[in-house]
Amino acid sequence: MTATAAEVVEAVADPELPVLTLGELGIVRDVRAGEDGVVVTITPTYSGCPAMEAMRDDIVRALAEAGFGPARVRTVLAPAWTTDWISETGRAKLAAAGIAPPGAAPRRGAGPVPLMLGVRAASVACPRCGHAESEQLAAFSATACRELRRCPACREPFEHVKEI
Questions:
Q1: Helix (H, G, I), strand (E, B) or coil at 43
Q2: What is the DSSP string of 79-103?
Q3: CA-wise closest residue to 40 among 63, 15, 14, 20
Q4: DSSP per residue over 93-150, as a string?
Q5: What residues are paired with 1 via a beta bridge?
Q6: Whether 75 contacts 47, CB under 8 Å
Q7: How far is CA 9 from CA 13, 86, 127, 142, in A?
Q8: Where are the alpha helices (DSSP H) in the chain?
Q9: Cis peptide before 70 (omega within 30 of 0)
Q10: Residue 38 contacts by C-beta under 8 Å, 6 or more apart in sequence?
Q11: Nearest CA among 91, 151, 97, 159 for reference residue 126
């Protein structure tokens, strides 16, 4: 069976979290194949995401290798991506890779996203041993959307995808 353009795009690995596909990450908004090629619409995890160029290149390359004609990748910022869009499969893959998946994203109304400074009250369970609490070691990790934490029970450090 030949894959559809949408299946090809959704199977592309995320360049920053390669344990996830773009489909599992929830950034693929639309894939339309027409006579002029394929148009893919994606929403980045945040507007300044440094991996956007790599994602575009990977999507175009995957579609070309699958036999689809020319491809264009469009970026849309509204509605803004939220960690709630990560699939259950994606969350399970994060945990299996030792990365704590995000909890529920904060609820907010339409309009600008308020800047919230200060300590988050949410606890983050260890993805390795399951201990319910962990301590934050650094507010940022390999990317701005992750933080570095450590489990007091098994003493292992791990990353946590922040709730956005």
A1: coil
A2: SPP-GGGS-HHHHHHHHHTTEEPP-
A3: 63
A4: HHHHTTEEPP-PPPP--SSSPPP--S--------TTT--S--EEEES--SSTTEEEEE
A5: none
A6: no
A7: 9, 16, 28, 24
A8: 5-10, 22-25, 52-65, 88-96
A9: no
A10: 5, 31, 32, 63, 68, 69, 70, 71, 72
A11: 151
Question: Reduced to 3 DSSP states, what percent helix, strand and coil does the chain have, rounded to the nearest 5?
Answer: 20, 20, 55
Tokens standing for residue 112: 């600008």
Residue 3 is encoded by which pair of tokens? 């894959």
CA 120 from centre of chain: 21
58-94 residue pLDDT tens: 999 999 999 998 999 999 999 989 999 999 999 999 9
Q: What is the pLDDT of residue 115?
A: 57
Instruction: Indicate the residue type of 59.
Output: I
Structural tokens at position 22: 């773009």
> Would you state the torsion angle of the CA atoms of residues 19, 20, 21, 25, taken in this order, to the nearest 10 degrees?
-170
pLDDT digits (tens, 9 = 90+) for 114-142: 655 555 557 899 999 999 999 999 988 88
Longest Cα separation, the chain: 57
Neighbours of 77 (CB within 10 A): 10
